[in-house]
């Protein structure tokens, strides 16, 4: 056993004892030959590992903005009342309550995980019943919610890519007639864009990994779908996991990798038994293992690694750190993973949806894919829609679809949409003059989340939720992200108190620029996006919020302290 087993070992103790004690750390330290101090620092990094005992039932209530708008506070109060515990301390022997960021159930909010089983559409009445059942000794597994699929089959059949019927092993058949290079050529020709948010062409990654000679290579599936508002990858795990496995097998064949790892976020742990059962079936049918499809020397092994609650691990470099048994902090110098990836070996890291599309492209042919969508972004895209819409859920849309269509009567049926957040808090916000814009590379790309807010929603509440999310999720290694998001939160609070001036708005933009330019990874760089854009796109709203610049706004002023703190932190760090 080595360090790469660290997360699994920690999970063993966390599940068994409800926390990770000093004795556990010392045992793991001896077993894996990693210092106890290092293990402590790994434990402290992940939200789902605890250093002090938790109750038999850990309740993680989602605090995303959609949850907030659908009754989070009432549900939170109900949990506290019924369990006799308060949130974010360790609770009592029976219960521990924690807030957590998006758990992939934004279409069924408020939602919580109890011992990692989902409970959706919560109300105070439902909470009372749930807690009563637990107190009566019932097993949460037996009465957890059956999560709704909410899949909407939008493109006509001849333009559907992902949600066509699935037949096990069908996308692997072309392997029998095509060399690894021919498989890569098909993916490259299809112009498949990565679907995790970076939109990097998948074919380039596969080619680069293939070109890098090495004794060992890896295919990693990034299933750490943590961007608030996104739940499309969860749907793929629930309804098309075979397609994902086939995408990974194809990537292995094409690049010469013989091992695949699916890094599954712990929030989706309840899906694991069915997923592992299917994995066994793949082995039984010789679609995984040795000499796959009877091809001599074509071997590919596939396994799961469970994350432990960290948004930043969704970044490929941080995810690799996590897989290697470290804190999921993005490294300072990030080499291309296709050259020095997992364990310094050539590695392809692709998102769940990307791998599913790869399998479909090989199954249907690249021309089928190229005939759908736009010239720069062929094919379709999965979008998770939540918020003020009558039909939340997952939509497979053809690239080039307008927001107007997506929000319209034929699709999600938004009610007076006003503020739409594209690609989660780290993405762009658009206002109602922009709904004719198209989702595609030629206009605006969407990583997979659309959060819709109507005219009656308070924009500042939305923005504050986003910035607080980043403040919580910042791994803290670089100052602009750690301190900058703190300052932006204070600024928003100041606006909410009615004490904001034009100067404050200008400062928001300046701090945003600093954070974007000098943060180390995508989390920091993207964190001020929504706030900065909103000040531009919702000018009338902010104009109303600005206080007269006559000094009266300084009554409750705490910004000077915040800025002073930020300045001294900056002095300690070379930007
Ligand atoms: Fe960590 Fe934020 Fe720096 Fe990224 S930008 S490395 S999340 S502190």
TrEMBL record:
It comes from the Bacteria. The keyword Acetylation does not apply. One of its GO terms (molecular function) is NADH dehydrogenase (ubiquinone) activity. Gene3D superfamilies: 3.10.20.600, Glutaredoxin (3.40.30.10), NADH-quinone oxidoreductase subunit E (1.10.10.1590), NADH-ubiquinone oxidoreductase 51kDa subunit (3.40.50.11540), NADH-ubiquinone oxidoreductase 51kDa subunit, iron-sulphur binding domain (1.20.1440.230). Residues 460-505 form the NADH-ubiquinone oxidoreductase 51kDa subunit iron-sulphur binding domain. InterPro entries: NADH-UbQ_OxRdtase_51kDa_CS, Nuo51_FMN-bd, Nuo51_FMN-bd_sf, NuoE_N, Nuop51_4Fe4S-bd, Nuop51_4Fe4S-bd_sf, Thioredoxin-like_sf. Keywords: 4Fe-4S, Iron, Iron-sulfur, Metal-binding. SMART domains: NADH_4Fe-4S (SM00928). Transmembrane segments: none annotated. PROSITE patterns: COMPLEX1_51K_2. The keyword Ribonucleoprotein does not apply. It holds the Pfam family 2Fe-2S_thioredx. Belongs to the complex I 51 kDa subunit family. This is NAD(P)-dependent nickel-iron dehydrogenase flavin-containing subunit. It comes from Lutibacter maritimus.
């Amino acid at each position: 056993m080595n360090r790469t087993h660290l997360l699994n070992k920690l999970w063993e103790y966390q599940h068994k004892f409800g926390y990770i004690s000093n004795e556990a750390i010392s045992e793991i330290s001896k077993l894996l030959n990693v210092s106890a101090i290092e293990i402590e620092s790994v434990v402290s990094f992940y939200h789902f590992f605890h250093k002090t005992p938790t109750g038999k039932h850990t309740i993680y209530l989602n605090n995303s903005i959609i949850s907030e708008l659908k009754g989070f506070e009432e549900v939170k109060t109900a949990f506290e009342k019924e369990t006799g515990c308060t949130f974010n301390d360790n609770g009592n022997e029976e219960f521990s309550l924690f807030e957590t960021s998006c758990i992939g159930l934004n279409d069924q909010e408020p939602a919580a995980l109890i011992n990692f089983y989902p409970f959706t559409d919560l109300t105070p009445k439902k909470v009372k019943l749930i807690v009563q059942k637990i107190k009566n000794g019932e097993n949460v597994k037996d009465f957890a919610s059956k999560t709704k699929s909410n899949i909407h089959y939008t493109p006509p059949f001849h333009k559907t890519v992902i949600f066509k019927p699935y037949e096990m092993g069908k996308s692997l058949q072309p392997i029998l007639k095509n060399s690894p290079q021919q498989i890569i050529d098909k993916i490259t020709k299809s112009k498949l864009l990565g679907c995790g948010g970076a939109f990097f062409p998948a074919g380039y990654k596969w080619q680069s990994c293939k070109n890098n000679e090495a004794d060992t290579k890896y295919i990693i599936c990034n299933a750490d779908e943590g961007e608030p508002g996104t739940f499309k990858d969860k749907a793929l795990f629930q309804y098309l996991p075979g397609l994902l496995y086939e995408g990974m097998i194809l990537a292995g064949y094409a690049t010469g990798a013989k091992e695949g790892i699916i890094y599954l976020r712990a929030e989706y742990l309840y899906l694991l038994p069915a997923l592992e059962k299917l994995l066994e079936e793949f082995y039984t049918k010789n679609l995984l293992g040795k000499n796959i499809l009877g091809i001599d020397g074509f071997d590919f092994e596939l396994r799961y690694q469970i994350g432990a609650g960290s948004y930043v691990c969704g970044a490929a470099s941080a995810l690799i750190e996590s897989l290697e048994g470290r804190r999921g902090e993005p490294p300072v110098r990030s080499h291309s993973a296709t050259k020095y990836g997992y364990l310094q070996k050539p590695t392809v890291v692709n998102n769940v949806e990307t791998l599913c599309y790869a399998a479909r492209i090989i199954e249907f042919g690249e021309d089928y894919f190229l005939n759908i969508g736009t010239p720069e972004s062929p094919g379709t895209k999965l979008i998770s829609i939540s918020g003020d819409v009558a039909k939340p859920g997952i939509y497979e849309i053809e690239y080039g679809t307008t927001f107007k269509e997506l929000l319209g009567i034929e699709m999600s049926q938004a009610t007076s949409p006003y503020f739409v957040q594209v690609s989660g808090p780290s993405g762009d916000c658009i206002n109602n003059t922009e709904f004719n814009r198209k989702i595609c590379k030629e206009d605006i790309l969407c990583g997979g989340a659309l959060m819709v807010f109507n005219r009656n929603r308070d924009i500042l509440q939305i923005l504050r939720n986003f910035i607080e999310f980043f403040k919580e999720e910042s791994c803290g290694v670089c100052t602009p992200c750690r301190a900058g998001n703190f300052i932006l939160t204070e600024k928003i609070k100041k606006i909410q108190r009615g004490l904001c001036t034009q100067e404050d708005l200008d400062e928001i933009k300046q701090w945003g620029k600093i954070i974007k330019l000098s943060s180390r990874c995508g989390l920091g760089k993207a964190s001020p996006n929504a706030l900065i854009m909103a000040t531009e796109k919702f000018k009338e709203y902010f104009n109303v919020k600005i206080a007269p610049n006559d000094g009266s706004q300084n009554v409750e002023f705490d910004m000077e302290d915040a800025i002073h703190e930020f300045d001294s932190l900056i002095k300690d760090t070379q930007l």
